[in-house]
C-alpha cells in the first residue's frame, strides 16, 4: 500500500497538470479570438426583408475592419416586409465610437461565391450609435450605387467577375463573327474542307501502302523480308547443329577429347622443358654468372683501351690513310688513261 506522502505527491502532480492544461487552453482561446475574449461587448440589431448566407458566427465589419460577430438570426414577428428578419450582432463596446449614428449596413461577400458578412458603413454624423441600438439597412438606391462602383472598380470581386463576363462575351462574339478558329469552323466550311482533304490524303497513303505492286506492299504481302531475317537464323541453327553433332574442326574439338588431350600434353611438355631449362647450370649456377660477368668486364676494358690509343685519340693516322687512299686513286686513274707510262722494259 502506497504511503501518504506518495499519495499527496501524486495529487499534487495531477493538480499541476490540470492547471497547466487550463492555462494552455485559455491562451489558445485568447489567441483564436484575437485577444477580444475578455473585452466587453454590446448588442446591435439589423432588420432585413430576407437573409441568405448570414448566420450565427458570421463576421461583422465596420469599413472593412472586424468588430464582432453575428449572434443569432431570427424572425422578428413584424408585419413590415422590410423588417421580417432580425439579426442580432455582438460588437466590441469600444468599437461603438467608430460607428456613427447615421451608419448603414448591408450584406456583402468577399467573392461572388464566398461567405457573406455584415458590412457597416460609417456616416458623417458627429455622434455615435448607442449600445443595443439599431443600424438601418442601406437604401436600395445607395445599394445600387455601391454595386455600380464595385462593378467599375477592377479590384473588387464584382469588377473581376464583370471582367470575366466581358472576356467570355468577346470570345462568343468572335465565334459568331467567324474571327477565331472555332468561329471559322462554326460559320464557314474552310476548316472542314482542309480536314477532309487531309483525311483523303491519309486514305490515299494507306491505299498506296496496301498496293501489292509498290515496294511497301511487296514487303507486306510477300515473304521476302521474312526470308531475309529467317535465312541467316536458319544457317546459324544449322551450324550449331553440326557443331553439336561433332562435325567440322570446332565440332570435333568439342566432341572428341583427343585434340584437347594433345594440346594438354604439348603444354605439359613445354612446362617440363621450361623446368629443365631452369635447372641448367647456366641459369641455376652462380659460377656461370660470375664467368660471363668477367668476360663482359674484360671486353669493356679492351674497348676502353682501344678508344684511348693514339690512333683513336689523334687524326694523324686518319690523315695518313686518307692521303694514301687519294694517292692510290690518282695512280689508278693515270694507269687507266695511259698504261704505257708504267711499262718499262729493261734489257740486260
Extended strand count: 6
* Rounded mean pLDDT score: 76
Over all CA atoms, what is the radius of gyration?
Answer: 61 Å
How do the SSEs run, as a string of H and E? HEEEEEEHHHHHHHHHHHH
Extract low-pLDDT stretches.
none
Helix percentage: 55-70%
Largest sheet: 6 strands, mixed
What structural class do helix, strand and pairing data support?
alpha+beta
So how many helices?
A: 13
Give the strand order of the largest sheet, numbering strands 1, 2, ... along the chain. Answer: 1-4-3-2-6-5
How would you sum up this structure, described in words?
- The protein is an alpha+beta fold.
- Among the domains are: 41-138; 280-339, no CATH class.
- The protein is 58% helix and 12% strand.
- It has 13 helices and six strands.
- It has helices at residues 4-32, 140-152, 157-177, 181-187, 190-210, 215-221, 224-245, 248-255, 257-279, 281-284, 286-307, 310-313, 316-337; strands at residues 41-48, 59-62, 65-75, 85-92, 104-109, 116-121.
- It has a six-stranded mixed β-sheet, with no helix packed on it.
- β2 (59-62) and β3 (65-75) form a beta hairpin.
- α7 crosses α8 (248-255) and α8 packs across α9.
- The radius of gyration is 61 Å and the shape is elongated.
- It starts with a helix and ends in an 11-residue tail after the last helix.
- The model has no long low-confidence stretch (mean pLDDT 76).
Amino acid at each position: 500500500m502506497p504511503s501518504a506522502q506518495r499519495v499527496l505527491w501524486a495529487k499534487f502532480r495531477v493538480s499541476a497538470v490540470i492547471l497547466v492544461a487550463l492555462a494552455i487552453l485559455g491562451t489558445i482561446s485568447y489567441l483564436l479570438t484575437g485577444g477580444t475574449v475578455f473585452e466587453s461587448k454590446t448588442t446591435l440589431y439589423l432588420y432585413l426583408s430576407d437573409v441568405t448566407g448570414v448566420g450565427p458566427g458570421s463576421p461583422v465589419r465596420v469599413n472593412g475592419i472586424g468588430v464582432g460577430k453575428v449572434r443569432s438570426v431570427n424572425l422578428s414577428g413584424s408585419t413590415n416586409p422590410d423588417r421580417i428578419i432580425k439579426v442580432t450582432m455582438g460588437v466590441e463596446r469600444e468599437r461603438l465610437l467608430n460607428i456613427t449614428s447615421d451608419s448603414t449596413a448591408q450584406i456583402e461577400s468577399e467573392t461572388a461565391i464566398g461567405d457573406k458578412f455584415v458590412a457597416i458603413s460609417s456616416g458623417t454624423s458627429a455622434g455615435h450609435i448607442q449600445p443595443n441600438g439599431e443600424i438601418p439597412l442601406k437604401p436600395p438606391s445607395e445599394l445600387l450605387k455601391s454595386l455600380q462602383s464595385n462593378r467599375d472598380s477592377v479590384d473588387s470581386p464584382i469588377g473581376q467577375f464583370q471582367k470575366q463576363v466581358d472576356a467570355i462575351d468577346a470570345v462568343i462574339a468572335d465565334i459568331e463573327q467567324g474571327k477565331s478558329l472555332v468561329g471559322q469552323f462554326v460559320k464557314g466550311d474552310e476548316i472542314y474542307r482542309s480536314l477532309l482533304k487531309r483525311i483523303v490524303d491519309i486514305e490515299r497513303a494507306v491505299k498506296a501502302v496496301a498496293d501489292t505492286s509498290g515496294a511497301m506492299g511487296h514487303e507486306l504481302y510477300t515473304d521476302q523480308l521474312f526470308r531475309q531475317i529467317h535465312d541467316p537464323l536458319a544457317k546459324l541453327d544449322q551450324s550449331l547443329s553440326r557443331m553439336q553433332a561433332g562435325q567440322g574442326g570446332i565440332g570435333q574439338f568439342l566432341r572428341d577429347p583427343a585434340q584437347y588431350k594433345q594440346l594438354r600434353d604439348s603444354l605439359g611438355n613445354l612446362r617440363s622443358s621450361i623446368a629443365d631449362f631452369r635447372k641448367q647450370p647456366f641459369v641455376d649456377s652462380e659460377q656461370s654468372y660470375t664467368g660471363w660477368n668477367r668476360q663482359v668486364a674484360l671486353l669493356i676494358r679492351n674497348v676502353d683501351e682501344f678508344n684511348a690509343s693514339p690512333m683513336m685519340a689523334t687524326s694523324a693516322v686518319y690523315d695518313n690513310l686518307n692521303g694514301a687512299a687519294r694517292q692510290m686513286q690518282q695512280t689508278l686513274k693515270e694507269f687507266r688513261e695511259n698504261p704505257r707510262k708504267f711499262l718499262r722494259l729493261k734489257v740486260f
